[in-house]
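re: ur question from earlier - yeah i can do the single chain one, its not a big deal. heres the input i used so u can compare w yours
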Amino acid sequence: MDSRLEAIKKQIREWIRLDYIVPEDIPDIELYMDQITTFMDQQLGSNKRSEEDKILTKTMINNYTKNDLLPPPVKKKYSKNHIILLIYIYYLKNFLSINDIKMLFAPMIEKYFDASKQDTPNLFSIYSDIYDLEKIESSYIEKSLYSAHRLADTKFDAKEEPYLHALAYISILSYDIYAKKQLIETLIDSIRTDADKRIKAAEEPRKEKKKET
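and the output i got, formated as tokens:
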């Protein structure tokens, strides 16, 4: 293979080598807030764009709880399920609004956060399954990034016109991100619609009782 192409592939592999918390590394004990922030920084610190960036702070955690993205701690201690939600928030907040994350999390918190029934998956098993899917997807992401780089090559030579090549590459990737963000928002809107229908259905019997009285 051409040495330049191999170098490009190597660089792309570096770009997508983001830290992600392996399910088995999530503490199985309750942690205080300071311990949570330390754990997240140790696990995801290499994802930071600059040293000044924060992975997670006490203020962030308090705001997530205040905005119903995170159930409150019990006696100031956070469970494994709290940590899982915080991991998801860390990634999702980069491209979704707080309201969208809240809507996405509502069924998760209601059905699975305190799941105790044998036939109901718990939050950890869900996280583990999704983690396995993401590992598979990472190989497709690498191929997609390489494909977009080659597409930019068809119009601009990376050595002769580095800025124009970078601009084309960024534009192609941005288009991909925009399209996926639109799809994600559409899926969240469908969750919102289903939730509204359930609320409306639950209110109907109450309205009928009021009419009878």
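Helices lie at 3-15, 33-44, 58-66, 80-92, 98-112, 123-153, 162-212. not sure if urs matches, ping me
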